[in-house]
Specification:
Monomer. With about 240 residues, the chain is α/β, with parallel strands linked by helices. Helix content is about 45%, strand content about 10%. Helix 4 (about 85-100) runs parallel beside helix 6 (about 135-140) and helix 7 packs across helix 8. The structure holds ligand L4RZE5RM and magnesium ion (MG). Ligand L4RZE5RM binds near residues 17, 20, 129, 135 and 139.
């Protein structure tokens, strides 16, 4: 007789990535990034002296001495660099798009019902993205499912360290005052999951067909958030037709 499959240990908190996990890669690459690229010059012309913008430009000059900061920012955009000054500036630029109604934060239809059910069940929800904390709050605050910011406890960006470094996840667990094994990290990127797993987290790879994500073979996979819930013993809400993936 074969041994019964062991249930995974209960999850007390979820830490979720955004691009490729809660939201489509196409939204980030085809809506958000081009919006920031188009608006960059006008934004810098109007705001270069604002303290937060000036600090970003100083950081760009320090990172690429002798180069024109706008050219550096455009190169970083083309490379999808996760450099902090670029991410901060993108967030500041997106603010006008979200608040003016030009941009709505994309969420896969299965995401909000699960987040609400997990929150109701007392699971602490948190975000970790390369996008700045301000940009994360904009996306969830102006999302296709309404303002979801109240569901989240903490938002983390690369101020905690890179997403492919185990130390970042250890630092986040400390901030959340939880043992790493109590936290489930959700991402589409295998290297991020590797790092979180090294720090002791439970992990799950989101393999969303529409994004063309390939399973790494190194981690549990889920096609959507209800599949995450089923695998890790979290509440599974009943989805209406439009919310099913
Ligand atoms: C906060 S929304 C914009 C996402 C972004 O700028 C990005 O670089 C994607 O990073 P993620 O870590 O969410 O994959
Ligand atoms: Mg991602």
């Amino acid at each position: 007789m074969s041994a019964p499959a062991l249930a995974p240990p209960p999850v007390g908190a979820v830490l979720t990535d955004i691009e490729g996990t809660t939201s489509s890669i196409a939204f980030v690459k085809e809506v958000l990034f081009p919006f920031a690229e188009r608006a960059l010059d006008g934004f810098l012309d109007a705001h270069a002296a604002d303290p937060e913008v000036a600090a970003c430009l100083t950081a760009v000059r320090r990172a690429a001495p002798g180069e024109e900061p706008r050219a550096v920012l455009r190169r970083w955009m083309a490379e999808d660099s996760k450099a902090a000054p670029l991410k901060t500036l993108q967030g500041l630029i997106w603010a006008s798009g979200y608040t003016g109604g030009e941009v709505t934060g994309h969420l896969w239809p299965d995401v909000a019902p699960c987040l609400r059910a997990w929150h109701r069940a007392g699971i602490r929800l948190n975000v970790y993205s390369s996008g700045s904390v301000a940009a994360q709050k904009l996306l969830f605050g102006h999302s296709s499912a309404g303002d979801l910011t109240g569901l989240f406890g903490d938002f983390f960006d690369t101020a905690m360290g890179g997403k492919r470094e185990a130390a970042s996840y250890a630092a986040i667990a400390e901030k959340l005052a939880r043992p790493p094994g109590d936290i489930l990290f959700l991402s589409d990127v295998a290297e991020e999951l590797d790092a979180a797993a090294r720090a002791g987290y439970a992990v799950c790879q989101l393999v969303r067909a529409e994004d063309g994500t390939q399973p790494s073979g190194r981690h549990p996979v889920a096609a959507d958030f209800p599949a995450v819930a089923a695998t890790f013993g979290l509440p599974v809400p009943r989805l209406s037709q439009g919310e099913a993936a």
